[in-house]
Amino acid sequence: MGKPGLSKNPVAKVTPDPTKDDGAKVEAIKVQPKTSPKLEEAPTKAVIAGRQEVGDDLDVAGPDPEKQTEGVEIQGTPAGKVHTQVLKKVEAISEEAVQKDRTDLAKASLEDLRFKETILETEVDAKEKLKRAKSVREETIRRIKAYASECTDQWFTLNYSKLDELAAGQTSMSHELDIGLGEILRDPDIEKVLVQTSYGTTIEATRGWGTTSSGETRYGFKDENGNYVSTLTGDKFKILSDKYSNLEDEKELGDISKKLDEEKLGREKQRESHVGQGNGGQEDAGEYTVPDTGGEGTPGLAEGSEINFKLGKRGGDGNSKTPYRFLAVKLSNPDTGTSHLLTNGGAPGTKHPSNKSDIYRKNWAKSQMRELYNKGVRVVVSFASRQKMPIIMKELREEGINMTHIVKRYPKKAADYEELFGKIGKYISDGVSVYVHCKHGTHRAPAGTAGGLMASGRVKSLGQAMKLAGLNPYKYPSPDNGHWDGEIILKHLFHFAKKQGLKIETPEEFGRLGYSSRDVNKYRKILKQAF
């Protein structure tokens, strides 16, 4: 959601409050970086998008770094007067009360949390101006208590995981992914905040409409360049605003009511155009359109044209016609009217290779290959060490079914993967239909498909390639507890994406492609390890 990146030469820039025109001159303040104490490690949860949360050496696509608010450590910046009053009210809320509020917030739809003015029941009637203002103020206090785990040295520490645990089973995305400070700090008196990320970057943000990394205009808190400032578990914030309106004063109440009306109208308009955040999974992806990159790797395509990707539903058990865990992606070019298939799945000839009792069926393998051939597949890439496949392909050629067969079995080195990605990518860019398989169709086959897409020039980012390949990061096991190292395959993909000069999504951007929290967590882990 438009989180600014890290800077090698951090300087804090304090800008005039856009809501005030007092003519005051504000000077830039230089601050020494990396002076704050180490933050406690945040729970591993899904991360928010738009955030450059990797080292300076990683070229992650996003907003122009020249226009970003530079990261700083501002340990000595005091909280404002509003913060002090808010903190007293937050601390006055009992543990029993906050547990009830968390439960109520978890039950509410994330859409309502974003767009409705209040969710929690209050003792005041929000119909009249005074009571409405008090209701929003009380709602803000209680939301801070619900979403923050503690307040130390004037910093509130966010913990979305408590709400996500209570909201488990929701079909929409998590609080971690979809709820920001704009949803927590609903009181319009809170006009300015200081946000300190779990990676040490500090951003001064003001209330208003900001632009997220995906181009969405969203209400919340924005940096000096108008970029939406996102937050996640482990991030901290303090309120810098000094004026806390006297709701008993008619003029001040009128000003607050006007701000509430303007914000409510804006949120309602945004709600009308708000698109759901995906299905929380990857099995049934529906249609997905990606702008084409043009240039090399996409012969005959004009700059700015589009390639349409239509994903089918990944299958389950294999049968006489379809391999195990089969997924087909139809790639079509509206400019030329041509299309071809990119498919992947499990080894031909099996029903469910994870079952030890499952047997290899040669007749199934041949009929599955015939079916793929009839659908236009002309290249088969085998990541599995099945000696039977070369025999099957030889017998099919004798029948007049000629398909190129590439066998790589178990690539181990980065160069092996890159070579194979390049081969698959060449077929994709040439418009040749391909079937990529391993044993189970869960790890190597989707990875090989994603790598091929990146090599082909048909996608602009790592996340798009993974999405189209039907790749679920959480399915790749870590080497801990005796598991084989499936994560090394993902690291090869991350490195290849960087080498290709492709965008590498931030965790939130990745989540917005329709991935579950488990997938986003794994993606976040590999992103941090890979670079």
List keywords for this structure.
7-stranded mixed sheet, 16 helices, elongated, Protein-Tyrosine Phosphatase, Chain A, alpha+beta, 531 residues, disordered N terminus
Briefly say what this structure is:
By secondary structure, the chain is α+β, with helices and mostly antiparallel strands. The protein has helices spanning 81-91, 95-107, 110-115, 129-147, 161-166, 175-178, 181-184, 250-273, 362-374, 388-398, 414-429, 444-456, 462-469, 487-499, 507-511, 517-530; strands at 148-152, 155-158, 192-196, 202-211, 217-222, 236-239, 287-291, 306-311, 327-333, 338-345, 377-382, 404-407, 433-437. The protein is built from 16 helices and 13 strands.
